[in-house]
Fold this protein.
Amino acid sequence: MNGRSACLLALWLTAVSRCAAAEHPACTDPAFDWYALSPGELRAIAGSCSSTAFTELNYQRAYLTDLLGEDAAAAGLISWSTFERQPDMASHGIHMLLLEQLAPLYIAAVPERLALLNQEYEIRNEIAELWLRGYGTLATRLRELHSQNSLYH
């Protein structure tokens, strides 16, 4: 390897390491404090992650935030929705936040923890969307089925 090739290789490695270092903390740390971020910010972060698992996690977090915001808006417009859906949507949000906080205590390895979080977000967000769209009976049945087959049941 001549001097020019070595210099180009060193420059390329420096650029690659700077790009990796510039990655948002939500793309590298599953415990990142994302709660104050908007869904748009979470989607932008997800689009910048090099890890597929972190990309999916941040998209799921954005979707959760969208669902909770949509339910709050609907509850303000339709008074009966407060009684029918609000407890389920609130419990969904609390469940996911608790799961994120407690997951490191049960699953130390980050790849396995990300897999669990992504799986739970996908299923729980689907259940929440069913509740939000007025399919409470179907949502309840899906939640019961998931609870029976759950990893932490």
Notes: Residues 52-77 form the longest helix (26 residues). The chain is about 80% helix and 0% strand.
